[in-house]
């Protein structure tokens, strides 16, 4: 090493045994959540798959670098390999620094790397004394993660302030530490994310939904109308938000300071108006549950949540969407210039040319449908969401009433048996009485939640 300063990370004895115990307990919890998750928000979460993703990030036997490369907290050679791959991905970006690895002094239990000192990214006063631009650091953090996820599909899964430092090289540089927890994203997920950006850019709900289907986030149901309307609503809201941000930036700082903030009542009223606009569609989505939460996104969502908190600490006006937009547009311009996009454009033109000669057949099919409607041969399925919700509430109320009747009957039976000194059957009756009693309580809570959700979604809360 010739006098060079290094950092040596030594594994604590018995760490694998502790991981084994914790992961076994988490497995039990995941299986329990899989059974009791009500999924009332329209999304189906695979808790066991999420557990498996977390377990693979901690350690997974049989996978060697550079295969899938999940981070392996108990094998430091894997962490070292992750660090080198991460450094290779950012070799052309001077605002990211990764400590070099000394392989001659690295084993599965000992990691030796270059000593790169820095200031924690959340130490605001120290960063100001260092003289770096905090706003630019926030932008660098977001851009680095977009680069990791969209360009390389290999990202740091634990970006808390202890793992990201800053020095004054090149006017402010991000230093990443601890590569034991790394995530990987498959090619189809990355392509789906780019397609989603493209759909948002074009304000096309259909493209966004196609991208979500490609990523496995959305499973097509029989009726996608409610999902499409909801996507259109959120695209419009997103565009309005960006327009409002542009208008706010155009105002002078003095005017912004004197701008009257919305009152609590006005905020609640605006929320009710938004929910009332898509309330029925949200209830339909909650009933059909077309959305999925892929385990791959577990650490992606966590990473961006942490980054959002770090960014707001660096700059109170930090907006992750505003920073991501130019980066996404650059990727889209690169995408549009690619051969793949030319092929897609050619396919669309070919399809349009083909459709031109199919119009006569389609008109004939439309005429056949109208004729079948007139003759009564065509059946239409009409879905009344109000009736479905009413039936769900009635079924819950009936079940709760039956449980309450069972509680009353068992209490009477147990009391009679106790008075006649028949203790064992009386104890059994009291036991089942308690079970039905808990069912009554759960039923009351469920009815209350159904009523609250109805009022919230319909804007009458």
Summarize the structure.
Residues 3-211 form the ABC1 atypical kinase-like domain. The chain has helices spanning 15-36, 47-58, 76-89, 124-130, 134-152, 187-201, 205-215, 225-250, 253-257, 264-288, 297-314, 320-336, 339-356, 359-375, 385-419, 423-457, and strands spanning 6-10, 43-45, 96-97, 110-114, 119-120, 154-156, 164-167, 173-176, 182-184, 291-293. With 461 residues, it is α/β, with parallel strands linked by helices.
What does this structure look like?
With 461 residues, the protein is an alpha/beta fold. The protein folds into four domains: 179 residues, no CATH class; 81 residues, no CATH class; 35 residues, no CATH class; 73 residues. The chain is 64% helix and 7% strand. It is built from 16 helices and ten strands. A four-stranded mixed sheet has the order 3-8-7-5, with helices on one face. Strand 7 and strand 8 form a beta hairpin. Helix 6 packs across helix 12. The protein is extended and about 90 Å long. This is ABC transporter-like protein. Pfam families: ABC1 (PF03109). Keywords: Membrane, Transmembrane, Transmembrane helix. InterPro entries: ABC1_dom, Kinase-like_dom_sf, UbiB_kinase. One of its GO terms (cellular component) is membrane.
